[in-house]
């Protein structure tokens, strides 16, 4: 996901976001990878959006739009260890302040949010 990370890094730099950059970039990479692996039929792509909002722009939202079905969820670990899949969403759930899934026709929007210090 080098293109997705490069896009996100460019936006964060342009917006002068300094806090939590590594967390945001890792979540961008995980959500984009999940979209390609599970949410995009052959020949289709996904849309990555970054939005800053709040009174001081103090919340950064990452959205990945895809046209696949299903609702992603963090899998329950078995015997204290996660299985082969699901580690990406586990990372997103741990690093982001919030995350979730929204409706889109066709498909879904998987998003996460980060409180960021003002520039």
What can be said about this structure in brief?
The protein is of the alpha+beta class and 119 residues long.
Can you tell me about this structure?
The protein is α+β, with helices and mostly antiparallel strands. It has a single domain, classed as Histidine kinase-like ATPase, C-terminal domain (Heat Shock Protein 90). The protein is 34% helix and 24% strand. The protein contains 3 helices and 4 strands, in the order ααββαββ. The chain has a 4-stranded antiparallel β-sheet, covered by helices on one side. Strand 3 and strand 4 form a beta hairpin. The longest helix is centred in the first third of the chain and has 19 residues. It is globular, with a radius of gyration of 14 Å. The chain starts with a helix and ends with a strand. The mean pLDDT is 88.
């Amino acid at each position: 996901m080098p293109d997705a990370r490069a896009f996100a890094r460019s936006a964060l730099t342009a917006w002068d976001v300094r806090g939590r950059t590594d967390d945001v970039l890792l979540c961008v990479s995980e959500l984009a990878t999940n979209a390609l692996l599970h949410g995009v039929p052959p020949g289709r792509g996904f849309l990555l959006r970054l939005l800053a909002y709040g009174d001081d722009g103090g919340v950064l939202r990452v959205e990945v739009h895809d046209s696949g079905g299903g609702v992603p969820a963090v899998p329950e670990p078995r015997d204290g260890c996660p299985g082969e899949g699901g580690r990406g969403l586990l990372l997103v759930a741990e690093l982001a302040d919030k995350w979730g899934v929204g409706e889109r026709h066709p498909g879904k929007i998987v998003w996460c949010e980060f409180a960021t210090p003002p520039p």
